[in-house]
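Tokens as discussed.
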């Protein structure tokens, strides 16, 4: 279930900022039974249409790993030259602070009562290294508590405020350079997906996150190796393997709700900007490959897609 946690983390990492600790990357190997799919290899893509200046789409990974924060020259060149920068969501601190309230239960509600004393006590032991006290844990929604243990435990001395995040650094650079900055989604829209999860599905996610907690570093290292090698399709394959045997409800959320529907929404929202050209789009790499990925959807809209990196 670890890959499932990684996808949830891809969204919630933008709200629950924790540290990241990775060991050296091993040579990536593809998931078993991974088949080819459209646009399954590459991180930077040129999007062009006759009569319009080209734009570029860059697949990001929501991570603080310094190897991910380092951007190749090909990416920096098109980013600097762009007049508009588009991201999945805005990472402005004031908006993040407001949406953190959505992680909390209603006054008077208790996580311990929702999940049971035995499960809560085990969970309290898992979140302790993250600096989350039992009293704070008791105020969190089930899915929010699960996302905490879906992140690597911060190293001693690390602080969410002292570290950085690729998406946030790109947005910050775009604002400093005077670019137009556009968010394809609001943080609330993203969090609403989790809030709409049925109680039994949230509990399923929590139980799996607790079971797989010890494998987080290993799984994140694997995802990072896929990403740095440009094998974005392998990330999708790994997710598909992970979902085998999961409930139909959870499978729907992880594929239809969190990927396919959001892909279509993001494409529709970026189209007016792409029609003007000279746009840099930075979105999670998992949204790019496949028949229902952002790049395939753009070809259906008449755009030519060319891998650049």
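Sequence:
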């Amino acid at each position: 279930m670890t890959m499932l946690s990684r996808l949830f983390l891809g969204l919630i990492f933008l709200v629950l900022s924790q540290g990241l600790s990775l060991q050296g990357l091993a040579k990536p190997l593809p998931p078993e039974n991974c088949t080819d799919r459209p646009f399954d290899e590459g991180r930077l893509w040129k999007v062009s249409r006759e009569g319009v200046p080209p734009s570029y789409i860059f697949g990001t990974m929501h991570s603080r790993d310094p190897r991910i924060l380092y951007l190749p020259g090909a990416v920096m060149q098109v980013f600097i030259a762009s007049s508009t920068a588009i991201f999945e969501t805005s990472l402005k601190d004031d908006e993040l602070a407001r949406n953190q309230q959505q992680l909390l239960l209603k006054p008077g509600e208790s996580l311990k009562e929702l999940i049971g004393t035995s499960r809560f006590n085990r969970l309290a032991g898992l979140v302790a290294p993250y600096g989350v006290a039992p009293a704070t844990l008791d105020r969190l929604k089930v899915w929010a508590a699960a996302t905490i243990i879906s992140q690597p435990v911060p190293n001693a001395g690390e602080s969410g405020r002292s570290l950085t995040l690729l998406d946030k650094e790109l947005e910050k650079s775009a604002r400093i350079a005077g670019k137009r900055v556009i968010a394809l989604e609001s943080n609330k829209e993203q969090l609403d997906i989790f809030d709409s999860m049925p109680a039994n599905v949230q509990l399923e996610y929590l139980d799996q996150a607790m079971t797989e907690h010890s494998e987080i570093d290993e799984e994140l290292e694997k995802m990072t190796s896929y990403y740095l090698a440009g094998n974005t399709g392998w990330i999708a394959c790994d997710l598909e393997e992970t979902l085998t045997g999961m409930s139909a409800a959870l499978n729907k959320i992880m594929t239809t709700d969190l990927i396919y529907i959001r892909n279509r929404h993001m494409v529709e929202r970026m189209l007016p900007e792409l029609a003007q050209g000279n746009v840099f789009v930075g979105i999670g790499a998992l949204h790019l490959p496949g028949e229902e990925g952002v790049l395939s959807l753009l070809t259906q809209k008449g755009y030519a897609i060319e891998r650049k990196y």
